[in-house]
Design a protein that fits this description.
- 5 copies of one chain form a homopentamer.
- Chain A is an alpha+beta fold.
- Helix content of chain A is about 55%, strand content about 15%.
- Chain A contains 10 helices and 7 strands.
- Chains in contact: A-B, A-E, B-C, C-D, D-E.
Chain lengths: ~350, ~350, ~350, ~350, ~350
């Protein structure tokens, strides 16, 4: 089962236990042979250049113009690339460690000259029916934004497309606005998850009413686990965005804050929906448990009533099967039909009684 | 089932994922062909004019007198109308986006020159037995109030009637008092829902005691879902009104605040009632589960006792049906009556035993 | 069932939906023909006068001496009387509306020249086994206290008696001390409820152990509902008294605050007891559910064991009832006694087995 | 059952309902004829005198030297003694009322010239298996400490012994240090309770695994009630000690606060343990419910399987007991052995089937 | 069972009840004959000396250079050693008492000249399947750190190794950085526990789906208890590290705080994981309970259906076993085959009915 997702980070983490802080060792799942694509966007309101670099070092020193440089890595398993960036931008060793240790909880840390933002990008895999979670980290400086994805993905593509098409607000905005745009893309992904979860819930409700099975129960349990995972991603992210909103760092311009407030609203909507879904799941569990037990009990009741009908009849047949020598009924010519008469009367009386009691 | 109501907004939301913020795209259910009625009230203490406009642009520029202009749209699916108002009043693009994205959580945002208030109007549909939720948005400026309903409805009619009849406090009050009156009307609608929910609960309690069925359980579950929906509408609204109460914006006059406090009390009453109902539902669930299981068990017990009575009798009949050659009882002339005597004795003894044990 | 008590206020409330705020319309249960007694106490340390008035207007203007005037109405269903007081003391229209809308949540509102306090008086009706809830409202000014009861009652009589008997602290105190005394009387009433609830719980625990029935379960559910009602009365009252304690209004003298702290302690004691009772009820529910199921299962087990004993014997009797021509045992002279011997052996072996396994 | 302990205070309390505040009436259980021992310790670093007084009045006026006077009463049912102390030390009437109303919740009240501290001393009675709760009240002045126990007891004896043996810190400390020492003794008593509860839990866990009975369930319920009682004593006490810690009263010297912090830690440990025990009890309940139901179901399953084995055999015997004239098998010489052969085959096949399905 | 672990500290604690505060008496499990190893590291950026001392007194007075002295004791059961350190460093008596009373809750106390930090080191014992908990205490002064382990262990070895290998940050840092390193090692141990718990959960989930037994339930209960223990260790530790982070003590350099923030994040991750695991356990319990009941019910249903099939057949055989003289069917030559025909028809009809109803 996929519980490994919940604990694997922890397992890996402990392998490094005792190492000094700041030791760079990649703790994720990616094979280190997988290549990492390094892309560099440099833009301001008028110009835009887009390059794919062999390694991050080529990006430095950052030019004075155009104003904003966005360096993106779609993998963090090659530690030397991370170190290049760390040297070029004088990043704190603990920050670098957090970059490659891809099991971070979403957080925001203000290092003065730059902000460090960690979020988690979620992806619902309908095949294996679980949520894949990937770390996204942003380093936001005055003139640059460096973003680190754990795996290659296309969630940032819409932002790239808007950059190329010259979307004015994005091109005019600084790296903080770009950071907002990326976080917004991440949060939009959560809505996508909720949509798919919503469909799974609709299916489960359908199943619950028509033909609940042990599968349904496991489906409810699985959803519960997914909601735990989602909550673990969204709740701290809400705090992250809230602290960006109320940050006094001058790296966040006040004109960007109104947009951050919008993302903040979205995270609250998601938290809200997750809580509602948890409530619903609890209710569905009650219906499931009661439903399966009722269904079975109904069967048992019908069978028991049926059996009970025959109990006195079988006794009666047993009685007339006795071998007493002095047994007057056996000699009556109407004995046998009488037996059937009595049997029918008993059966019908019992049926009437059961029906009157509302047992059938 | 109507869970779609809970997730459909989300689905729609994700379709737009990746679009730049501020893109206006209607995300509600209304067919875009449905006409939108635009009404304009302009009034002060002495005068009142009421007009239906072809489009909002006709309302601008707002006259200096009479003081208060109330522009109402009973639909937000024609994006160009929204944009007209946005241009005329210089509204922030994110605000316009929130207007047409009709799945907002209730919130209040202070843009300095105007306040933006979102609430949700609820309507209980007894047919389909669920709560229909509609977004209501208010833009409150110094001399105007613009209100946006998602669907045509009559919840604001009492306010219109009071305006026409010249209710002094309303006519003397500014747009902030008008905003209060509209919010009050929305909250009064929640009481209406609670009333109907109260009747459903009374029915369910009745059913629980007299003849609980699987239907009853589903009724409890459905109510639980409605309470989730109600809570999602009321809790944030309480915060909205609270922040209006403590707002330092000069758009809210202090004389209006005492009225807002009154609405605030109402939202607390509703929150309170919702919580109580949730508690009651939990209790009803316990009774249901215990009741159905007891009812069935009672039946099974009676049937089992009945069967058990016949077990030894049937055995006895079997014994006297055996074909042993040397079988003295079979030859006794009183054998057969004796059999009945023993049978009766056994049955009565067992009955007495069961009764003494309190099993019947 | 009495759930109506919980929702009826709400129903009534919605009938008025849409009316402008400040419209006076009585929303309680009392028939409007029932007379209202208006009593006026005027006292200071030396003098005391006590009068019954035809209508409240007679009380005004309030004399300069004696210092304290206490006007009490034991009903609020005659709106014109309320309006007389409102005019005489210049009370805010919303306050008057709250007076006649007798479903208020306990609250304290500071209108500057006077404080408005709402509490709920509870009364346990052992016949119908539910808590009757009545609104009590106090308007506390510098020289007067006006109190409004929803129904005639005797809960304030001890306070009247102490006034007449010249209790020094009460006679020396101002209207704030009088308000304290009335609130204290209300809270003392809650202890009375708890006492009766305690007896019901003792009975239920007794029943649970000796002979739990479906009645017991309904009793637990009913108590749960009563606790919800009690909590709804006490929790907000605690906040009311707390805000009186920390009020900066000069209408509350600091010498009175030490007494308010005492009432505050009492409300905390009650909240505490209510929470404990809720915990106990949950535990009782567990015992009930487990107990009834155990009891029934015990019966079923005994019956099943009994039936099982006869199963092989009946089979054996069936075997010797077969009509095979070549059937040696049937011809043995000791066949029949042997049958009984075998039967007894089987039955005793099974009994021993059951006993050894601890099934009996 | 002992629920009375939880409600009896309440009942008693209500008997006094309506009495003016400050009326002294003893509300505890002790017979008023039981004598009260009044002891007076007077000590400083160098001297110590210890006396038993006929009545508290003898202690006053307090001498200037030695510095600290500790007056202890081991009963509060003789109201006149309380009043003597109240007069001598000018205590507030409400304080006196709280002294004799022995159902107070732990609290700390700062009256300026003295502090009033109420705690509850708990005692586990293994016979009646419940916790006996007794009120302990301290009045802490600049040069004196007056302590009131509800019943005679020996929990303060270790403190007395340390005084007599000249424990330096205690003898050097002021009345505040003495108050700390007494509270510490009270809290140490809670650890004693927890220890005994721990043993009961170990017994219950043992029972749960080996032979759970309805008794076990009642034991769990009883413990749950004890935990409620313990929590009601400890939680407010934690707040009391916390407010002593942060009190700005000059009656508490800062050198004493480090000791109070120690007691505070102990109360947190106890709260912690109580919460853990509640969690454990919930888990034990689940095991109990599942265990008893499993146990019974196991029995039913075995019995049912046994019965089912005989069903087809009995039918077969019935078949060969039929009296058809043309019934070839009956005439075969090997008919009877064949019957046994078929029967055995059927039974073994069924057994094999059950076993393969894992039902046995 | 190992509940003793939860209560034994408490039991021991109470043995000392009534003793004056500051009395040193060891309350742990270790036999007092077990030797204690005292090690002293003295280092700065350039030098490092490492010694094993016969007793702590040899370490004092601390040299001026190298700057940092780290004294470690791997046992606290020899009270005289503790007292030596207490005298040498002028530690508060309560602190010494906490050192030897090894059941402290994690806490941080600022004594001005030094900080006192208590944490709990956890160790999962797969044999006995429980978490062993050991107290770790740190006394952090300006130039020294004294650490006290309850039992010898190797959790600090990686830190020692880093010291010896000259890890620059550790060698350059002060005693506060060393304290951080030790706390980090402790917290890393918690991840190790979570990893093992994760494996146990995976096993339990496996069991739940394939073959749940009463063992599985006890496994769930045991894990629940472990989670309680883990929570009791981690939650207060989180507060400890938080108060170190926000401490204004100059013993914590601001350069160290960024590292403490890292440990703080780890504790939050652990708290998070513990809460998630508790949620999962609740879900697993539901599946277990439903699963076992379903499994059994399934068996009962199959057996009951099987029995029911034979009920009418057995009756029929009984009928034709009756001995009526006038019984036409018995004389028909096709009577016996007809009986089998009817029987088969009845059985097949019933089977078809059951199948159509979905009962099989």
């Amino acid at each position: 089962m996929q519980f490994t997702r919940l604990v694997s980070p922890i397992r890996k983490r402990s392998e490094k236990a005792g190492a000094p802080p700041g030791t760079l060792a990649y703790l994720g799942d990616a094979p280190t042979t997988q290549p990492i694509t390094v892309t560099l966007f440099q833009y301001d309101e008028r110009e835009l250049s887009e390059r794919t670099l062999a390694e991050p070092a080529e990006a430095f020193p950052l030019p004075e113009e155009p104003t904003v440089s966005w360096l993106n890595l779609d993998g963090v398993h090659r530690v030397e690339l991370i170190e290049q960036i760390g040297r070029a931008l004088s990043l704190h060793p603990l920050l670098l460690e957090d970059l490659v240790n891809t099991q971070q909880r979403p957080k925001m840390e203000d290092y003065g000259a730059y902000l460090f933002i960690v979020a988690r990008m979620l992806d619902y895999d309908p095949e294996r029916r679980h949520i894949h979670s990937e770390q996204v980290a942003l380093v936001l400086g005055r003139e640059y934004l460096v973003s680190f994805e754990e795996d290659p993905g296309d969630v940032f593509n819409p932002v790239r497309a808007r950059l190329r098409s010259g979307a004015p607000r994005l091109r005019k905005g600084g790296p903080d606005y770009l950071a907002y745009a990326l976080l917004d893309a991440v949060v939009d992904g959560y809505f996508h998850i909720l949509e798919q979860v919503g469909e799974v819930i609709a299916d489960l409700e359908e199943e619950l009413v028509s033909h609940p099975t042990q599968e349904t129960l496991q489906g409810i349990y699985r959803l519960k686990r997914e909601m735990i995972a989602l909550r673990r991603a969204v709740w701290p992210l809400r705090d992250v965005i809230n602290s960006l909103l109320h940050s006094e760092s001058e790296l966040i311009q006040s004109s960007t804050k109104v947009y951050l407030r919008d993302v903040y609203d979205h995270t609250i909507q998601i938290v809200d929906a997750v809580e509602s879904i948890r409530d619903l799941l609890a209710g569905m569990l009650d219906i499931y448990l009661s439903g399966t037990s009722n269904r079975l009990n109904e069967i048992m009741k019908v069978l028991t009533i049926f059996s009970t009908l025959f109990i006195p009849l079988t006794f009666l047949a047993g009685v007339y099967g006795m071998n007493f020598e002095y047994f007057p009924e056996l000699k009556w010519w109407f004995g046998y039909p009488m037996f059937w008469g009595i049997s029918l009367t008993i059966a019908l009386t019992m049926l009437a009684f059961f029906r009157r009691r509302g047992w059938m």
